[in-house]
Amino acid sequence: MVEKGFNSDVSWRGTEYHVQTEDWGRQNPYLVSRVFHNGAVVKSIKTAYHEVLPKGPVTQTEAIRLAMKIQHQQILDLLLSGKLL
To answer: Average of pLDDT values for 57-71?
Structure first.
């Protein structure tokens, strides 16, 4: 099962960006964030499940959702601080 992703539109220094974070599913276990400008991908970040999912009793669905939320927020923070592009 693939979890629903996150989408945000942000402006940095007068330039509009769209940030999308998605789950590629258990068959292709990655979380992928992309930053778009005028419809083109200007940055892509791909993180393997094993790098971010916790070990322990948390259900995988909850863990994937939380990892996506954290990755999405980190990308937004980096973009708005000028450290991503």
So the answer is: 87
